[in-house]
Amino acid sequence: MSRRPSTAEPASAPVITEEDLAALDTSEGGETLDRPEEIVNLVAEKAGAALAILTTAVIVVLVTVAVVLRYFFNSSLPVASEGPTYLFPWLIAGGAIVAQATRGHIAVDVLVGRLGGRAHDRAQIAIWAFSAMLLGYLTYLAVYLIPPMAAQSTPIMGWPQLGSFGAFILMVAVMTLQAAARTLHYLRHGAPEKNEAPDA
């Protein structure tokens, strides 16, 4: 017995729109704002960016020189061998300062992202005040470590390790000021809501 072909029209496949994808997005916060909210973070952003760019350029030059000497001349240059390692903490410090200035750091704010109005402001103020105190304590510990770090030197060039460790001291000190400035700014003007541009 032959089957009759079905006359029913095949069901059309559902179309997923941009709105559907946006509704599925459960990520909260962590977005990078275009500019810092106040002058302290604005200056820190520019200074951190300059530090990161300069350090990156010097590291690239030194690594290139080291590779060329090693593979083409079977030789080495001590400063090219040890310089990138010595300067790398300064690159990290510059990047961390820029990330904090623009709120581009990784944030897990599932709870805070769901708050609104005054509750959101209070949560942000509390978070940044705690961050300022924690970073201030890290700055104290870093300064406390200056004497033992000053007594150490690098194995190749004999440079003081304090020159490299100084990047950490600078980073936590500047980030302390950044967090404190943001706390005061939020106390005066309130914290920006998600996807809201900060007022300068």
TrEMBL record:
<dbReference type="InterPro" id="IPR055348">
    <property type="entry name" value="DctQ"/>
</dbReference>
<feature type="domain" description="Tripartite ATP-independent periplasmic transporters DctQ component">
    <location>
        <begin position="59"/>
        <end position="187"/>
    </location>
</feature>
<keyword id="KW-0472">Membrane</keyword>
<keyword id="KW-0997">Cell inner membrane</keyword>
<keyword id="KW-0813">Transport</keyword>
<dbReference type="Pfam" id="PF04290">
    <property type="entry name" value="DctQ"/>
</dbReference>
<protein>
    <submittedName>
        <fullName>TRAP transporter small permease</fullName>
    </submittedName>
</protein>
<keyword id="KW-1133">Transmembrane helix</keyword>
<keyword id="KW-0812">Transmembrane</keyword>
<feature type="transmembrane region" description="Helical">
    <location>
        <begin position="85"/>
        <end position="104"/>
    </location>
</feature>
<feature type="transmembrane region" description="Helical">
    <location>
        <begin position="158"/>
        <end position="180"/>
    </location>
</feature>
<comment type="similarity">
    <text>Belongs to the TRAP transporter small permease family.</text>
</comment>
<feature type="transmembrane region" description="Helical">
    <location>
        <begin position="125"/>
        <end position="146"/>
    </location>
</feature>
<dbReference type="InterPro" id="IPR007387">
    <property type="entry name" value="TRAP_DctQ"/>
</dbReference>
<feature type="transmembrane region" description="Helical">
    <location>
        <begin position="49"/>
        <end position="73"/>
    </location>
</feature>
<keyword id="KW-1003">Cell membrane</keyword>
